[in-house]
Amino acid sequence: MAWYCLFCKGGQEQNVMRMLEERGAKPLAPLAVHLRPGTKGQERTRQRLLPGYVFFEQGEEPDWMGIIRFSSVLRVLHYQDETPELRGADLSFVRWLEAHEGLIDVSEVVKVGTKIAFVSGPLVGMEGQVLKVNKGRRLVQISVGDGEGLFHAIWCSIEYVQERDDSKSTEQEL
Fold it and tell me: pLDDT band for position 69 (50/70/90)?
């Protein structure tokens, strides 16, 4: 089974996923939970983690002509050598997304000096480093590759919690 990625028109991810399912593929258009101020305090909303991108897994060579002709698909992502099959850091990233069933929930963090430590949530143990922290919006930008792949960074929500003893936590520079 191989993983691939399509870039589609914004807001058309669900239609592209249905088309891929009809062709026997297993599609994934990941969502991220974000914390937003609401009338009743913090509200959790779901947004596309990577708007316009749809990953899919298929055992046989995809029908590229049929996929490209679908009006919502803009292009098939591929590497410089024209290979569309995901590999390296990109494949690790999509497998991480799959392990979280395509939904990246809020991760809890504690502040440790000038660093943050992830104590729960999908970012605990993720291979990537914190690139930026937006404390006001409670977001962190995480690198997802080695700079050679198709994807470079994602924004995920964090929630500061009281420090507690948790051997699973991983520290990241701010």
Answer: very high
